[in-house]
């Protein structure tokens, strides 16, 4: 991937994509060593309004990250050059305008991104411009290159993680002291959502975007959250790092995060490092088995699971109107905040696929529409994992989450549910898991009439669980 810096001739273009930072970014470090540098970001309509997974909340987050990055680059003496169009054409134009001899970017794993990068590389090469893909999106240089003793990609997490832990890490890169800007290029203006063909988002985000905020959030987590992480991480009301949007957009370097965990073997850092490994595992799966972006990893489940189609149930799930408090809290958190806690992601995904019997791809797409951390590899991996059709297999009946017992276990005092489902604010703890069991006076006292203020359950979990077992059993035979 790397080439010797001394080979680079003329100005270098740094093409930012999902690596929106200046700290520990190998592509930027190398571009900065050229005589001058042109940092750019290209809005590609094939990924935005016209893409497979367009998302207003995620794009809004990205725009704010870009504003922060632009400021950092200005502080270093350069700017972020903003363009819109097909990267292959825009990069050639920019290279032509500044006489660039090389273009640098951070390697990505999705099938779409890899095809695009190959196309761009080929075109640049035809013009005699060197294209260089660098590590930086993951802790190891290339998660997809991690292979088993039989020289095959891993399809089970634990052995992957064991090998992954042993892989030598690259040295961290300092941010550049200053950047010499390539001359004569109009920086361009950052567009807004409407200009990009996306709807406005009305909710106020609870995540502040950008590298500056991401570094601060990581620092706070190390000082305050890490120690208790292993105990509290499953608590939806708080306890995990909430760093996923920053990792998704590269506002923080995953390697820097790992290095700063230190080498101590305390429980918090150990368990946290394992979560970071999941992210790298799914990147490896996506790159080695690109077909998973469309179909089930396990062939026996392709086209055999008899998914149902019910727009009303799908809509109730999306809007947080299922009558199951934990499900509704999670889906409303997603709607309003563009994020959801991991435990709840698992429970709502199980509910969609194993209680409502709706296709996991419906859930995958909805998550991608709303999540600010929406990541093709992690999201697909998470959905296939919960649906029991992906890598890291466990029998399907071991991954059928009961929304009521999950709530009892992980939100016993209703802190999370009451926060997101306002109608349940006055429902007492004894009824909060099954509000439909309140009698009429209790409903009136709690200002929560079932079927009026808050929905009755849209399905019966025990019944649907039995049906799901039959469905999976039939498919697996
Ligand atoms: C159905 C489903 C869909 C998901 N979609 C996404 C997605 O689009 N983007 C995304 O980043 N994560 C996704 N996840 C994984 C996980 O839910 C989030 O990474 C996590 O909730 C983020 O919260 P956190 O930063 O507080 O996590 P922490 O618990 O603090 O973990 C630290 C970091 O490790 C990584 N991580 C943790 N768990 C996982 C995991 N299971 N898979 C991959 N990476 C993980 C994330 O980058 C996370 O920020 C999904 C999980 C499920 C079950």
Spell out the blueprint of helices and strands.
Elements: E1 12-16, H1 26-32, E2 37-43, H2 56-75, E3 81-84, H3 87-98, E4 102-106, H4 111-126, E5 130-134, H5 157-166, H6 211-232, H7 244-248, H8 254-261, H9 267-288, H10 311-319, H11 325-337, H12 342-355, H13 360-370, H14 376-386, H15 403-410, H16 415-420, H17 429-432, H18 440-445, H19 461-476
Helix pairs in contact: 3-4, 5-9, 6-9, 9-14, 11-12, 13-14
The protein binds flavin-adenine dinucleotide.
Question: What structural keywords apply?
Answer:
single chain; five-stranded parallel beta sheet; globular; 3 domains; 46% helix; Serine Threonine Protein Phosphatase 5, Tetratricopeptide repeat; mainly alpha; Rossmann fold; binds flavin-adenine dinucleotide; DNA Cyclobutane Dipyrimidine Photolyase, subunit A, domain 3
Summarize the structure.
The chain is built from 19 helices and five strands. It has 477 residues and is mainly alpha-helical.
Walk me through this protein's architecture.
The protein is mostly helical and 477 residues long. The chain folds into three domains: 132 residues, 3-Layer(aba) Sandwich (Rossmann fold), CATH 3.40.50.620; 112 residues, Serine Threonine Protein Phosphatase 5, Tetratricopeptide repeat, CATH 1.25.40.80; 178 residues, DNA Cyclobutane Dipyrimidine Photolyase, subunit A, domain 3 (Orthogonal Bundle). It contains 19 helices and five strands. The protein has a five-stranded parallel β-sheet, sandwiched between helices. Helix 1 links the parallel strand 1 and strand 2. The protein is globular, with a radius of gyration of 24 Å. The chain starts with 11 loop residues before the first strand and ends with a helix. The relative contact order is 0.11. The N terminus is likely disordered. Flavin-adenine dinucleotide (FAD) binds next to helix 7, helix 9, helix 12 and helix 14.
């Amino acid at each position: 991937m790397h080439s010797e810096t001394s080979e680079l001739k003329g100005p270098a273009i740094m093409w930012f994509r999902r690596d929106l930072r200046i700290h520990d970014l190998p592509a930027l470090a190398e571009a900065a060593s050229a005589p001058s540098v042109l940092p750019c970001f290209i809005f590609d309509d094939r990924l935005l309004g016209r893409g497979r997974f367009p998302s207003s909340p995620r794009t809004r987050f990205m725009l704010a990250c870009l504003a922060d990055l632009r400021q950092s680059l200005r502080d270093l003496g350069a700017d972020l050059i903003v363009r819109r169009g097909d990267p292959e054409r825009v990069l050639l134009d920019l290279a032509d305008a500044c006489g660039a001899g090389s273009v640098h970017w951070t390697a990505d794993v999705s099938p779409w991104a890899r095809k695009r990068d190959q196309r761009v590389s080929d075109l640049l090469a035809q013009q005699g411009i060197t294209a260089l893909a660098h590590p930086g999106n993951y802790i190891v240089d290339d998660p997809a290159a991690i292979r088993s003793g039989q020289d095959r990609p891993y399809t089970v997490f634990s052995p992957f993680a064991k090998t992954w832990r042993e892989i030598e890490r690259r040295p961290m890169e300092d941010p550049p002291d200053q950047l010499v800007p390539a001359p004569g290029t109009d920086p361009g203006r950052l567009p807004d959502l409407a200009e990009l063909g996306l709807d406005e988002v009305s909710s106020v985000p609870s995540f502040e975007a950008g590298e500056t905020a991401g570094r601060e959030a990581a620092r706070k987590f190390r000082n305050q959250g890490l120690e208790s992480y292993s105990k509290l991480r499953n608590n939806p009301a708080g306890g995990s790092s909430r760093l996923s949007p920053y990792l998704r957009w590269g506002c923080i370097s995953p390697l820097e995060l790992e290095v700063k965990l230190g080498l101590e073997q305390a429980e918090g850092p150990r368990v946290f490092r394992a979560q970071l490994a999941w992210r790298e595992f799914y990147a490896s799966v996506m790159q080695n088995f690109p077909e998973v972006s469309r179909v089930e990893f396990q062939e026996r489940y392709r086209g055999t699971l008899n998914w149902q189609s019910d727009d009303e149930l799908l809509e109730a799930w999306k809007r947080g109107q299922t009558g199951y408090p934990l499900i509704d809290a999670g889906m409303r958190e997603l709607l309003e905040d563009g994020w959801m806690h991991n435990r709840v992601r698992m429970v709502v995904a199980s509910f969609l696929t194993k209680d409502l019997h709706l296709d996991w791809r419906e859930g995958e797409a909805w998550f991608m529409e709303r999540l600010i951390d929406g990541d093709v590899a992690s999201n697909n991996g998470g959905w296939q994992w919960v649906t029991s059709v992906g890598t890291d297999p466990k029998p399907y009946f071991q991954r059928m989450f009961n929304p009521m017992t999950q709530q009892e276990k992980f939100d016993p005092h209703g802190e999370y549910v009451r926060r997101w489902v306002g109608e349940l604010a006055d429902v007492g703890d004894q009824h909060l898991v099954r509000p439909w069991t309140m009698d009429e006076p209790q409903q009136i006292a709690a200002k929560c009439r079932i079927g009026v203020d808050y929905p009755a359950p849209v399905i019966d979990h025990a019944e649907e669980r039995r049906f799901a077992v039959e469905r999976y059993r039939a498919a697996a035979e």
